[in-house]
Amino acid sequence: MTEENSLLGLAVIGVFFCFISDFLFKFLVIGSAGTGKSCLLHQFIESKFKQDSNHTIGVEFGSRIVNVGGKSVKLQIWDTAGQERFRSVTRSYYRGAAGALLVYDIASRETYNSLTNWLTDARTLASPNIIIILCGNKKDLEAEREVTFLEASRFAQENELMFLETSALTGENVEEAFLKCARTILNKIESGELDPERMGSGIQYGEASPRHAKHMHGTQLQNRQQCNC
Ligand SMILES: Nc1nc2c(ncn2[C@@H]2O[C@H](COP(=O)(O)OP(=O)(O)OP(=O)(O)O)[C@@H](O)[C@H]2O)c(=O)[nH]1
Question: Which parts of the sequence are annotated with region: Disordered (predicted)?
């Protein structure tokens, strides 16, 4: 084998391992219209600010594999429309989500005042154990701030939420928000508090997980037994 061929082989193996994951987590991005949910998702996936973002119609989807505590986790993220007229559509996507970013705009008290409604929806429609991070977005609009950091952090504490102020425009804390949520879920899996095998947990074993291989092996065995081959 030539040196070029072996380098090519290593590159192919590298690319393969980049696309396989230990876990898959279903995430939601929820909150009032115009708070920057689509821009946060775009910044997280594309590492740039989405210019001319329009209102989301129903839901949009994005995914990215991240490394959390030595494990590769595929985040399957559903960006939901904040407009009231889409509520019945977006609510149908909540089911079985493991984590959520609950977004308000620090420059709009109205979006902050609606948080309780979004939170109730998430806990009743997704799961009472859903891991939620509160994101005070548009942190860059300091001069227009209507919601203080302190009051939002108190709200987060009272409602058992994690909290960060973010800016989809500058990228500040965007990566951290998604990773913090993923890390908390992973810690709960490792401590046994969350069971990925429970129906509707919003968690699946990825292709790189030995549990996935075991599960696949079991399925293949079952199929073989069924077809007698
Ligand atoms: N200054 C500033 N503007 C932002 C930021 N994030 C989003 N915006 C702007 O806020 C507006 C709404 O952003 P979107 O991401 O479309 O909001 P959304 O929450 O997805 O809205 P819906 O889809 O209607 O629910 C757009 O004009 C964005 O340019 C931010 O971090 N800072």
Answer: 197-229
